[in-house]
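cron nightly-structures :: item 1 of 1
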Amino acid sequence: MTTRLAAVVLCLCFVAACKKSDPPQTEPAAKGEQKQESRSKGTSVKLTLAAPKVGAKYSVKNDTLVSMTALGAEMSSNETRAYDVEVVEVDEDAPVKANVKYTAAKTVEVEEGKPVPPTESPLLGKSYVVSLQGEEVVATDAKGVKVSEEELALIRDDIDFLGKPDAVRVELAAREFKVGEAAPGLADALTKEIADGAAESGEESDIKFSEVKVVLSEDKGTHAVFTVTLKMDQKVEEAPMSAKLSGTVEARKSDAEITKLELSGPLELGGGLASGKMSIASVRTE
């Protein structure tokens, strides 16, 4: 759930209203919420890096939406991908082999204001055995036959959990965080993960980040909620693209796994020739 997020960045704004008033004028529920927020600020939170056990099962659903208006015409692309994972083999602190089954994989597009027939991915409805052999990612069908290069390229987006833990999880478990405190080390890990995930294999990413801020915003008991804001610039077919994204991400404290991501914001292409919005949502359920 990291590469596609890579994603894993978010933004949550704290709004605290401190206003003197007579007791009858304040709703009891609002008082309770304000007191809870006050008590949580400054609380220390520690996440632990732990590998899943053999036989562990979970599901992931990713939704990515990009919508723009250019020269008066609407364009959009909505990609949905969902898959189930079963861990088959673990080496030290990370899975090295797993079964993956795709339950949803399609893209719905609008071009010049007109819907385009949905494009179904070749992954839809298929099951794969994925493994790490040295540094190489290998994927076969249930009978052990290697998949096509097209399928392997698509699968790679979803199996970054194979091998050593990614930099984001390592940074999440590296130290204690305090609610309300900025985490520059985590911001660096997140932006690097996004850039690496978007780059072509073997090439360096041309994404540039600025105005990046990551803050631990809430301790939810079993999960920690981090918030991020960032500006992302990149050239798309030689045209400049700029996006300001913000949202929220939840990480499970027991194993530093990201279980929920919501990220969105305005998007501009070609120096103002086209504008719109981008949103990314990812949910992991056990």
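cron nightly-structures :: done
Confidence is low (pLDDT under 50) at residues 1-39.
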